Structures are given as structure tokens and as C-alpha cells.
Amino acid sequence: MISVESKKFKKSLIIGILVVTTALIVGLSIGLALTQNSINNNFSKANQLLTKFPLIDGHNDIPSMVRKNFKNQFKLFDFNDLTKIKDKLLGTNGVTHTDIMRLHKGKLGGQFWAAYASCESLAKDATRIHLEQLDMMKRLINKFPDIMKYADNSIDLVKAFNEGKIASLIGLESGHAIDSSLAILRMFYALGVRYMTLTHNCNVPWATNNLVDRLSNASAYGGLTQFGRKVISEMNRLGMMVDLSHVSHQTMLDALEESKAPVIFSHSSVYALCNHTRNVRDDVLLKLKENNGIIMINLYNGFIKPNNEVPTMDDIIAHFNYVKNLIGVDYIGIGADFDGVSSTPPDVEDVSKYPKLFAALRENKWTEKELAQIASQNIIRVLNENEIFAKSQEHLEPIDDIIDQKDLGDLYSECRTSF
């Protein structure tokens, strides 16, 4: 027989358990509500920030995507919303990351659109392809005059944003575009190109690319040749930013030594966190600070997380924090590489998700001032400093040196009739 006292004890125990359980549920609900409120608040603040300060991305490959899928024929696609035909697209695993609808949602204020030709075009039709990419991008900008506005300097960039439009600048992703000719380099500048990536994933006769760093004898390949240094000098004289994404470690060091104006990494991440040769090592980051340049963090999965792992938002934020802790916030930007890569993180899978990235940075205690810097102020500064340096060089004549024909090799001589 159970005693009265035992019954009272069990009743008290049950009541106690119910009270504790209820408190835990209520506490958990309140905690979840507070967390959700915090997430919503950070997202709202991120949107407000990107309305106030332009977000300028350093690298988008929509010109390449349009060429690959539509042969630059505008009648074949509707740039307002490419998600409608995403299953029919070639290239980046049948996806596209960019269109007008998502650009608006992502609060983009400015974009460097990348003109690109594959390494297969090297010493063949690279110059033609790049020119066609410039033509395609300018036509696309002109097709949406209420949404995008062409800019080729820091002042017009800010004006476009103040008019509520996406400032659209053009970068040249592949150094083989100039066919080892300083004259062609100057013509690309005249056509509006404001940065050039010295190499893609292939060497040019005057600079080595990142793939040589995977070789046991990488040092034997060198970096910039003497002519390569003249390319840097002429870019400085023009005011065209030197882009070191894709180049070898030695080319990075040589270019940082040679350039008198700040350089950029338009779409690279941190080697110490993901040891891909496309990423930037600590010694280069330290020299980048001395140069007053900028690294624009790439959002491709393979540059954020090694071993084919899918990056989380924390993995992305780690790259920003790493550079901030090593050299400071003054040298950081964003160059997502959208429409040029096959996989992107689930949390930031296309151009519409920039506010989510900034909300996460805010959650990680980044201040509004710091977020404004990485959104646009740093890259505007770098562009402006290149313009200022070019202004100081106006008294100089263009460099008209010709590359040594022995440096070109047989690959180039087959398609040339003279120097």
C-alpha cells in the first residue's frame, strides 16, 4: 500500500517536472524569438546600409555566360529574369547567378563586368573575343538605361549610384587579350577597360599563372619578365588597375614590387583558410597592405572551403575576418565571381543574397563603417588612387617597347606576319 506521504511526493515531483518543462519551453521560445528578431534586425540593417552605400562587386562573368549560351544574340534571352530558362543554360552546371530581378533584390550598386576568353584562344582569336565581350556588355548596359549606367571612373561610379542605377564598369579578365602588345592594351583602356587580370589559368609570354605553383619546380617558371614589368608600368600610366587574381605567387610578388599604384585581387580568397593556388598567401597580403591595394573575396565554393566541402556562412565570414585581423579592413572588398563558377554557397548562391552576407557580417560585430568600406569605399579609393597616379604621369610618353620575339615562341609566330 502506498502511503499518503508517498502520493504527495509523487504529485509534487510531477508538478515540479511540469513547471520546469514549461519554463524550458517558454525560455526556448523566447530565445528563438530573440534570435529571429536579431536575424531580422541585422537583415533590415544590412538592406538599409546597402541603400545608403553602394555595394560594388569586383567580378561578374555574365558576358561569358551570355556568349556561351546565346552567342551574344539578345533576341535569345530576357535579362530581366534568367531563372525562367535556367534548366536550358550551359556552362556553370546549368545555372545562372545574375539578372535584373536578382540584381535589384541584392541591392547591387556597382559591378565590374568581366570580359573573358578561355585559354584556348591564346595566340589565336583572344583579342577578337574580348572585343566582342566589350561590345556585348555595353549593349546590355544601354538596353537597360533606367537600371544600369556605364562608368569608367570613380566620379561617374558614385554619380550612377546616386541616380539609383547600377554603376557598370568593365574589367579584362585575361592578359592574353592584349596579344603581348602595349598598343592593344592602350586601345582596351580607350574602350573603357579599367582593370586587367594579368593572366587567366595559362601563362602569357610575359607572366606566369597560378597553376605553376602546383608544380614541384614552380620557382623555375619565374613571374614577370622585363616586358611584363613594362605592362605594369603602362597600366599605371594609363590608370588601369593591375588585377592579380589567377597569377602565380611569384607574379604577385613581382607586380607588387613594380606597381606604383594600388593593385587589386578582383576575385580571390585566403590561402591560409583554403589552400587553393588561386587564393592569396599571407606574405602577399602583407605586401598588399604596403601597396594600399585590395583583395575582393571570392564566393566560389572551392576557394572558400577545401576538399569539395560546401561552405557555410561561417566559412565565408572567416575569410573576411582573417584579412581584417591580418592587415585591416581598409584592404577588403567583394568579388563574388558569379556566373563564372560552377558552385556557390547555399547562403549566398547568387547576386540576390548580398544583404544576407552583410547581415551575417553585422552579426559578427562588423560596424557600419567597416561594412561601408568593404561594400564600396575601399574599391572606390583604389580606383581613385590609380586615377590620381595616372594624372601625375600625363607628361610621360606611352611606352612603345615591343616584346622580344624569342619570348613569344612558336605558338605565337604561327599566327603573326610581323612583329
The rounded distance between the terminal residues' Cα atoms is 110 Å
Largest sheet: 6 strands, parallel
Name the helix and strand elements from N-terminus to C-terminus, one letter apiece: HEHHEHEHEHEHEHEHEHHEHHH
Total strands: the figure is: 9
What is the residue-averaged pLDDT?
Answer: 92
Structural class: alpha/beta
Question: How does the SSE layout of this entry go?
Answer:
Blueprint: H1 4-52, E1 55-60, H2 62-70, H3 100-105, E2 108-115, H4 126-143, E3 148-150, H5 154-162, E4 166-172, H6 182-190, E5 193-197, H7 226-238, E6 241-243, H8 249-258, E7 264-265, H9 282-291, E8 294-297, H10 301-304, H11 313-327, E9 332-334, H12 354-363, H13 368-392, H14 405-413
Parallel strand pairs: 1-2, 2-4, 3-4, 4-5, 5-6, 7-8, 8-9
Helix pairs in contact: 1-12, 6-7, 8-9
Give a structural overview.
It is a single chain. By secondary structure, this protein is of the alpha/beta class. The chain has 14 helices and nine strands. It has helices spanning 4-52, 62-70, 100-105, 126-143, 154-162, 182-190, 226-238, 249-258, 282-291, 301-304, 313-327, 354-363, 368-392, 405-413, and strands at 55-60, 108-115, 148-150, 166-172, 193-197, 241-243, 264-265, 294-297, 332-334. Strands 1, 2, 3, 4, 5 and 6 form a six-stranded parallel sheet that branches. Strands 7-8-9 form a three-stranded parallel sheet. Strand 3 (148-150), helix 5 and strand 4 (166-172) form a beta-alpha-beta unit. The chain is globular, with a radius of gyration of 25 Å. The termini are far apart. The mean pLDDT is 92.
